[in-house]
Amino acid sequence: MTLIKETDYGTPARNASASVTLEIDGKPVTVPAGTSVMRAAVELGVKVPKLCATDSLEPFGSCRLCLVEIEGRKGTPASCTTPVEPGMKVSTQTPRLAALRRGVMELYISDHPLDCLTCAANGDCELQDMAGAVGLREVRYGYDGANHLAAEKDESNPYFTFDPAKCIVCSRCVRACEEVQGTFALTIDGRGFASEVSAGGSDFLDSECVSCGACVQACPTATLIEKSVIAQGQPEHSVVTTCAYCGVGCAFKAELQGNDVVRMVPFKDGKANHGHSCVKGRFAWGYTTHKDRILKPMIRAKITDPWREVSWEEAIGHAASEFKRIQARYGRDSVGGITSSRCTNEETYLVQKLVRAGFGTNNVDTCARVCHSPTGYGLKTTLGTSAGTQDFDSVEHADVILVIGANPTDAHPVFASHMKRRLREGAKLIVADPRRIDLVKSPHVEADYHLPLLPGTNVALINALAHVVVTENLVDEAYVAERCEKDAFETWRRFVAEPRNAPEAMETVTGVKAADIRGAARLYATGGNAAIYYGLGVTEHSQGSTMVMGMANLAMATGNIGKPGVGVNPLRGQNNVQGSCDMGSFPHEFPGYRHVSEDAVREAFEEAWHVALQGEPGLRIPNMFDAAIDGTFKGLYVQGEDIVQSDPNTHHVTAGLAAMECVVVQDLFLNETASYAHVFLPGSTFLEKDGTFTNAERRISRVRKAIPPKAGLADWEITLALSKALGYEMSYSHPAEIMAEIARLTPTFKGVTYEKIDALGSLQWPCNDKAPTGTPTMHVGGFVRGKGLFMITEYIATDERTGPRFPLLLTTGRILSQYNVGAQTLRTANVAWHQEDLLEIHPFDAEHRGIRDGDLVALASRAGETALRARISERMQPGVVYTTFHHPGTGANVVTTEFSDWATSCPEYKVTAVEVRRTNRPSEWQERYRETRRETTRILGAVDAAE
Ligand code: SF4
Ligand code: SF4
Ligand code: SF4
Ligand code: FES
Fold first, then answer.
1. Is 61 in the pocket of ligand 4 (CB under 6 A)?
2. How many CB atoms lie within 10 A of CB 580?
3. For position 140, what pLDDT does the model report?
4. Among 154, 157, 172, 180, which residue has the most ligand 2 atoms within 8 Å of its CB, making it the best to mutate?
5. How does strand 808-813 pair with strand 880-884?
6. Each residue's pLDDT tens digit, 168-219
7. Burial class of residue 587 in the structure, from the number of CB atoms within 10 Å of its CB (0-12 exposed, 13-18 middle, 19+ buried)
8. Which residue from 277, 418, 699, 886 has its CB within 8 A of the most atoms of ligand 3, so it is best to mutate?
9. What does the pLDDT read at residue 371?
């Protein structure tokens, strides 16, 4: 095993169609026009010394180390800033150049600590490499003069240090923060000798820095370096894998010493991230070795009993015999399973197979139920495929970007940086969100329109936008005539044209000025390529599916589907939400979104799985809880999903779980759901197993085992063992074999193999005979369903209404440093940025209630009550409050209600009528929670595992 080192070409690749041939050191080379001489040299295998250049950044030309001689030109131009020209003759090595470079290096080294042997970057330092490359043997100037060697270190960031004594002021960090990340947190203060890198006058932790790591990645010295490298030393081998946090699906090199991860470095060839990262994937992997991890299987008879550690055989045998006992007593459909979007495709596939074939029921569902199920329904209905239409790179071709109900800078940070790059190049931006999210105004990016709609009025807004398009003759008539169902379009056109859908009529419903809606609609329809990106602010509503169809309608009407730069693009929450849906996790669908009632499909699975399968859809997650409370559903296998914390109306969820006789939880930690479990099976992290994840672009990427499973088994192996104990043996020796079966049985995956993914880096489905290397853009030339189908999207107000008792609307979301239920990120140093969930409230609403910033407030709805601290914020509009749901003790979902999307039962997390008042104590639920938690997490012979 070796440490993978990607080639640094010095300057970015250029995409020009014209090419240029030149000669470097006597050898010809042909490159795209606009390429730098430096890059052309590297492509030829010639390395030119460099310090301020790196291929993730535009050339800067400050260090003067990359000088070359060009025949017919005076002087020694910098190769990084000199573009190639036809017939150019370049020399990279001459005695004159060598002397000049040595002189430059000598100056650098004379103001640099000579501690290479004990420096954490020893062996991974470009300054050290360059000193060797130019043959520097002595420094004539001595170290007595003015220097920076005593400059103080900034250790404030939990993950990296900044040691200015080692800084060569090359500006790579400053440029990385601007060009790659788009945060503009760093500057070079002062001039000449006094120049220094500054995090805006404060330390890194207090600055605008979002800890993405781009500057650390770019720094050629040990000035900015990971604390883990300082503590553990340089890594010695690496494994390329995929981030297990959000749906961007960034590729990383896990760099290790033996079985210890030293750092995670974003992989330059990653097709979703192109070498960029966010604080979660880059730094928040410490949970994998956290002391809270449960590494022994455990069982107990009652949830009030302490846990007892047992062998894998005993735990699996006990779970299987309990499921068999329950089915014998209460019937086949009294049990079910929940798959996880945090697990791999192969693991998810196995869980649904176990439920359908091993249990003999279709009672399988997934956490995607509570986030993106409306995406599947809405896009399949209108376009024919339950997935987003583009790849991420498509944003580079967008002229207008419409972001609805998504907060990419917090929830999909690497894609947000990509999008912001395009916006800085001049693309226009429309943000539809109740809050002034960062995108509305951030450095060098400002939305052309912010449509601050009231929570729950998405459909009213999309209809008003469509009304403008239709009534102002902005429809792409030729596109619609060629590609869409005529009658459906005409019916839709008449519907949205009705005066009741006009922006002026909808102004009182949405709270958005009619003029802004009109302006935004015109911009979207006429501004060139227009792309929609949306998130859970669209789906988690009682009209989530309607809204997804509404967006598809708008995109079709304006011809914005089927080419780069356009589309309807869901920003998926979890790493493998797309995959868990693709793999047949829903109770009504086999893998590949085929209904269980389709005889031919079912027969194909019956033949492959050698078992009779049910043709009726099984229970969805909320219905499982209903049935449990009714006494007909008694056993549940939950893989990697914390339903108690993540699902709405916690009281209902816990009542359902408490009514079951056998709950089996397979997870890394004793999560909130484990408090209601009878069997605990210790799961494995993404670093401990092989498999694949599918990101928001339908991109299937490899997850590669970097270390052995700490508890002995990978999640897929646990499911195999459980299935075997149930009497339904599945036999695979490696996840590649599971993928082979998926490919055999799923038309959109027909061409997917591990070999192909390894060779191409990743694959976007559909991947089949027609598209053997995958499909970056969907619906090119025609829709998957044939003709695009316009759907009527009548706005129906949610039943969740404000009134005198609950006059405010609560909406929920995530923040950058935390992830979902916090199981992973709360067990990392990311808590430095977010120690608790806060309630954001507008100053007007706060003042009215006598609430000051930092006060403990009670947040009550008709479902329940919790208490948390208030943050007064002008990001909110009056009447709307906001919180995150990362901390179990906050219990944000105690407050959310059982209302859900009409088509998919996706909960309406984004709209809850609430009241807020000052308080001085936790809510009753919180007090009860603390007690229950203490009681239900005891492990025999261990000291309080979960506190
Ligand atoms: S970590 Fe990222 S955001 Fe922070 S200073 Fe570096 S590049 Fe900028
Ligand atoms: S911190 Fe690193 S990247 Fe930034 S200017 Fe100094 S040496 Fe260059
Ligand atoms: S953007 Fe998402 S996938 Fe990428 S590093 Fe961050 S959390 Fe991981
Ligand atoms: S690498 Fe070209 S001037 Fe620094």
1. yes
2. 35
3. 66
4. 172
5. parallel
6. 999 999 999 999 999 999 999 887 777 889 998 789 999 999 999 999 999 9
7. buried
8. 277
9. 67
Rounded to an integer, the average pLDDT of 658-663 is 97
Cα–Cα separations (whole angstroms), residue 204 to 158, 222, 416, 937? 10, 16, 21, 38
- Do the strands 89-91 and 260-266 form a parallel or antiparallel pair, or are they unpaired? unpaired
Helix boundaries (H) for 149-287:
172-175, 214-218, 227-232, 279-283
Give the whole-angstrom CA distance, residue 154 versus residue 18: 47
Distance between Cα 816 and ligand 1 center (Å) = 13
What integer pLDDT is reported at residue 834 of this predicted model? 84
Ligand 4 pocket member 77 (CB < 6 A)? no
Which ligand minimizes its atom distance to the CA of 204? 1
Q: Which two three-digit tokens encode residue 648?
A: 């709405």
CA torsion, points 251, 257, 260, 265, in degrees to nearest 10? -20
Q: What is the pLDDT of residue 947?
A: 40
Pocket of ligand 2 (CB under 6 A): 167-173, 197, 218-221, 223-224
| Ligand index nearest the alpha carbon of residue 42 | 4
DSSP 342: T
Q: How confident is the model at residue 543 (pLDDT cuts 50, 70, 90)?
A: confident
Please give the mean pLDDT across all residues of the chain. 92
Return the half-sphere exposure (C-beta side, CA atoms, 13 A cut-off) of residue 773. 3
3-state SS, residue 873: coil
pLDDT of residue 589: 94
Instruction: Quote the pLDDT of residue 945.
Output: 43
- The CA–CA distances, whole Å, from 395 to 422, 448, 778, 844 equal 7, 17, 14, 38
Quote the pTM value.
0.94
Return left, alpha or beta for 239; rule: phi > 0 is left, psi -120 to 50 is alpha, else beta: beta
- Beta carbon of 186 within 6 Å of any ligand 1 atom: yes
